[in-house]
Design a protein that fits this description.
The protein is mainly beta. It has one domain (15-156): MM3350-like (Structural Genomics Hypothetical 15.5 Kd Protein In mrcA-pckA Intergenic Region, Chain A). Helix content is 10%, strand content 31%.
Length: 167
């Protein structure tokens, strides 16, 4: 989606179907009451990057203001120290200034991470408002239909405002 020509690390030609659900963020009680589940199902090719996935999630939830983001893979919960972290090159160190380094999301292909069906990982968007998403690998298929990827194939719930009106 980014249109960049990059040397991508690994990644085959599988089709990953991922269910992305919002698990926390600045959502008003009224919005949460009306939208019990907020998720998007996204298909993405194994050779596409985590940055491509970020862009798909960004658009799927109707966001308009870019912020830093991070994928956390292999942990049991958000901010699990055992998780592998992938973020933008400008971050490449923990946003909290500790020594924990992250890998480059712009060069890491989805298929190179070693994801398995039913595996769950986290996506953290906007390190100030802390939008947390849980991503489940629904399927990994070796047959890829024609068309452009990534693409949203299912939406549940409305997209919450990126900056809610608390009044």
């Amino acid at each position: 989606m980014t249109g960049k020509k990059l040397q991508r690390q690994g990644g085959g030609e599988e089709l990953f179907t991922l269910e992305v659900g919002i698990i926390s963020g600045p959502i008003t009680e009224d919005f949460a009451r009306k939208n019990k589940v907020i998720s998007r199902t996204i298909q993405i090719r194994g050779g596409q990057t985590l940055e491509d996935l970020h862009e798909a999630i960004f658009q799927a939830f109707d966001r308009f203001d870019e912020h830093l983001y991070e994928f956390q893979i292999g942990g049991k919960r958000p901010m699990d120290p055992s998780a592998r972290r992938f973020s933008l090159p400008m971050v490449m160190k923990s946003p909290f200034g500790d020594e924990e380094e992250t890998a480059d999301a712009t060069r890491t292909a989805i298929g190179s991470i070693g994801l398995k069906r039913k595996e769950i990982f986290c996506y953290w968007f906007d390190f100030g408002d802390d939008w947390w998403h849980q991503i489940e690998v629904v399927s990994i298929d070796e047959t890829i239909p024609k068309g452009r990827f990534p693409k949203v194939i299912k939406k549940i719930g409305k997209s919450p405002p990126q900056y809610p009106d608390w009044d």
